[in-house]
Write a structure and sequence with these properties.
73 residues; mainly alpha; 2 helices
């Protein structure tokens, strides 16, 4: 994976994570019942999913960089 592509994708994912965090924060400021609780749960799930994708992307990039370093020596 090229470093430029990695950084662009990571930046995009971080923006998405911030939007999800704001969405969760909006729910936390409300008194939730029924459907609101379901939407809150979905928002939290989406936030954690984006966090996991960022972690996976970072790990993939580290492995790629490590593998590339081994091949050039």
């Amino acid at each position: 994976m090229e470093k430029v592509k990695y950084l662009k994708l990571r930046k995009s994912l971080i923006r998405r994570l911030k939007r999800r965090q704001l969405e969760v924060a909006e729910f936390e400021n409300k008194k939730l019942t029924g459907d609101g609780l379901l939407q809150y749960g979905k928002a939290i799930g989406a936030m954690y999913a984006v966090e996991n994708v960022i972690d996976d992307l970072d790990s993939l990039f580290e492995v790629t960089v490590s593998d590339n370093g081994k091949k050039t020596h």
